[in-house]
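During the practical work, I worked with a single protein chain and the tokens that describe its fold, as given directly below.
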Amino acid sequence: MALTGLASLCFLAADHTPTKAGPYRQVITRALDYMLAEQRPDGDLRGPGDMYSQAIATLAIAEAAVLTGDPGLRRAAIKGAEFIVRAQNPQAGGWRYHPRTDSDTSVFGWQIMALHSVEQLGVKIPERCRRGCQRWLARVSRSRHKMIAGYQDPSPRPAMTAEAVFSHILLRGRLSEAEMKEASDYLLKYPPQKNDQNFYYWYYASLSLMQMQNEAWDKWNVMMRDLLMKLQRRGGDLDGSWDPDRSRYARRPGAGRIYSTALSTLTLEVYYRYLPMYGRPMDRTKK
């Protein structure tokens, strides 16, 4: 479910939908039909997976519903979001692999993205859920402006910081100048490098910095774009794909070539999926 959702998001970001003629119309239609068929009556989209699958499938279905206006997709996305809300840990305020059991920032961020996309369908996320989200973000950060975050405690991690920053943006809409500077300065300490591949971190850092449209984004964008283009396979059976990285996130079951290719594609598509919430107007000629 998670891999189907990630792959679907790649096509949707390029404006390939079931309602629009194009070379990948049947591909995205089959993917969405599969996820809809697997959804249980209570909104469960995990299949054989966990809350990562729930969030990513809900996110993909919600994005498709926004693009097409299809009522069936809208209903499925709302049911998926309702399952996510019920699965939130009532004490910690976050999510982990299974409903209402502990929390971690990695699983948390995907739920926030899914809930944000469902909100674009006109559905309000319960205030109790939002308060829990803020509680978790406060728990995993002790930096001056609360932007630098850890996995299950405040021990700083680049990927978790990037994911927490983007979660802050989706939940609140805007960051202060001081918050943006703290986040940008930290993320630029860990620039994209060929000998330290982490597609998960690159994706969330790109999402976060793109929103800021500042000098940090300009630097990151050029480095990230050029490196991903160099890493993409050319020719043969693997043409167009990216080799799996060796980070802890890529060691999860199923996180192989499809995972790395989907995250790389989505990283190159951040310009299209989320318009900058503040900063100067985006110059698409710099992509």
Summary: Confidence is low (pLDDT under 50) at residues 278-287.
